[in-house]
Amino acid sequence: MKFAVIVFPGSNCDLDMYHAIKDELGEEAEYVWHDTHDLSGYDGILLPGGFSYGDYLRAGAIARFSGVMDEVRKAAEEGKPVLGICNGFQILTEAGLLPGMLMRNKDLKFTCRTVSLKVENAHTLFTNEYKEGEEIRIPVAHGEGNYYCDDATYQHLKDNNQIVFTYAEDFNGSRNNIAGIINERGNVLGMMPHPERAVSDLIGGTDGLPLFRSIVKQWRESHVSHA
Amino acid sequence: MKKVKVYVTLRESVLDPQGSAVMGSLHKMGYDEVQDVRIGKYLELVIGDSERDVDALVDELCNRMLANTVIEDYRYEIEEVVSQ
């Protein structure tokens, strides 16, 4: 399976993402600069964390108009897995590919530590290697991860099982402790925590690995007939 | 040519942690009269002469990029700029 790691000016988790795919998973990955206009050669799209365009105006507000975003939208429409982590999540909400918005953390602090997450939905292409309700430990590193949406949107997310990860404890003010959500179709996931930073015991844990394994497993299963 | 002053603020229904922190500090300084602080953004745009309706243009800019209407409201003022 071949992944595109989209690199915006100011991305800083692109190397970790590449490392996770290439070295820990043994799959293919390529860096793709944000002005690329063709993602047809890739099976999965990864939007890494960082501070694209210095978070000017709002986090993700400028990156979402990068040339590559039309292609990301197209990939999402084609049903390819699209994963946005941290700043990648912010870009996906700004682009309207996921509902809601990430606001400043309620205590105004940049929080950088490992937190406990609950897997709320283990029936997605990103989480099928986890158990439903499982508690996992994944690092967070953000100042604007306070997920906000209105009541109607929240109800919709809940009714459709689109809330994939929640924080075990509130620390940033996110609505109902939401840490990650998926689109209705189930192929676009945005999350603030960094699974790519939890792929080896050497760096403190491996709870992020099943997420990447899930994507690959699902892809292999759906492509067996074409092999 | 026109100068457009755009004010972007958090919606009333959205908590403003920065504003609350500033208000808390003002209260500590003794300014008990301050009842609310909301922090927003101020942008100045200079718009060249064009066929397009300026209001429609500014609304489009605000809705597409300058404000995120999920959590923010915007308002603006337009000033005529007399060329020197």
TrEMBL record, chain A:
Keywords: ATP-binding, Cytoplasm, Glutamine amidotransferase, Hydrolase, Ligase, Nucleotide-binding, Purine biosynthesis
Entry's Gene Ontology cellular component terms: cytoplasm
Keyword Chloroplast carried by entry: no
GO function term, MF aspect, one: ATP binding
Predominant localisation class: cytoplasm
Pfam family, one: GATase_5
InterPro entries per the UniProt record, alphabetical: Class_I_gatase-like (IPR029062), PRibForGlyAmidine_synth_PurQ (IPR010075)
Signal sequence extent: none
BP GO annotations: 'de novo' IMP biosynthetic process
Pathway: Purine metabolism; IMP biosynthesis via de novo pathway; 5-amino-1-(5-phospho-D-ribosyl)imidazole from N(2)-formyl-N(1)-(5-phospho-D-ribosyl)glycinamide: step 1/2
Catalytic activity: N(2)-formyl-N(1)-(5-phospho-beta-D-ribosyl)glycinamide + L-glutamine + ATP + H2O = 2-formamido-N(1)-(5-O-phospho-beta-D-ribosyl)acetamidine + L-glutamate + ADP + phosphate + H(+); L-glutamine + H2O = L-glutamate + NH4(+)
Subcellular location: Cytoplasm
Active site: 86, 194, 196
Record SMART domains: GATase_5
EC id: 6.3.5.3, 3.5.1.2
Described purpose of this protein according to its UniProt entry: Part of the phosphoribosylformylglycinamidine synthase complex involved in the purines biosynthetic pathway. Catalyzes the ATP-dependent conversion of formylglycinamide ribonucleotide (FGAR) and glutamine to yield formylglycinamidine ribonucleotide (FGAM) and glutamate. The FGAM synthase complex is composed of three subunits. PurQ produces an ammonia molecule by converting glutamine to glutamate. PurL transfers the ammonia molecule to FGAR to form FGAM in an ATP-dependent manner.
Assembly with partners or alone: Part of the FGAM synthase complex composed of 1 PurL, 1 PurQ and 2 PurS subunits.
Name of the protein described by the UniProt record: Phosphoribosylformylglycinamidine synthase subunit PurQ
Biological source species: Planococcus citreus
This protein's encoding gene: purQ
From TrEMBL, chain B:
Involved pathway(s): Purine metabolism; IMP biosynthesis via de novo pathway; 5-amino-1-(5-phospho-D-ribosyl)imidazole from N(2)-formyl-N(1)-(5-phospho-D-ribosyl)glycinamide: step 1/2
Entry annotated with the keyword Isomerase: no
Record Pfam families: PurS
Enzyme Commission number(s): 6.3.5.3
Any one biological process term the GO annotation gives: 'de novo' IMP biosynthetic process
One cellular component (GO) term of this entry: cytoplasm
Keyword check for Nucleotide-binding: yes
GO molecular function: ATP binding; phosphoribosylformylglycinamidine synthase activity
Alphabetical keyword list: ATP-binding, Cytoplasm, Ligase, Nucleotide-binding, Purine biosynthesis
Chemical reaction(s) catalysed: N(2)-formyl-N(1)-(5-phospho-beta-D-ribosyl)glycinamide + L-glutamine + ATP + H2O = 2-formamido-N(1)-(5-O-phospho-beta-D-ribosyl)acetamidine + L-glutamate + ADP + phosphate + H(+)
Localization, UniProt: Cytoplasm
Gene3D superfamilies: Phosphoribosylformylglycinamidine synthase subunit PurS
Major subcellular location class: cytoplasm
Family of this protein: Belongs to the PurS family.
HAMAP family in the record: PurS
PANTHER family: PHOSPHORIBOSYLFORMYLGLYCINAMIDINE SYNTHASE SUBUNIT PURS
UniProt-listed NCBIfam families: phosphoribosylformylglycinamidine synthase subunit PurS, PRK05974.1
Assembly with partners or alone: Part of the FGAM synthase complex composed of 1 PurL, 1 PurQ and 2 PurS subunits.
Functional summary from the UniProt entry: Part of the phosphoribosylformylglycinamidine synthase complex involved in the purines biosynthetic pathway. Catalyzes the ATP-dependent conversion of formylglycinamide ribonucleotide (FGAR) and glutamine to yield formylglycinamidine ribonucleotide (FGAM) and glutamate. The FGAM synthase complex is composed of three subunits. PurQ produces an ammonia molecule by converting glutamine to glutamate. PurL transfers the ammonia molecule to FGAR to form FGAM in an ATP-dependent manner.
Protein name: Phosphoribosylformylglycinamidine synthase subunit PurS
Species assigned in the record: Planococcus citreus
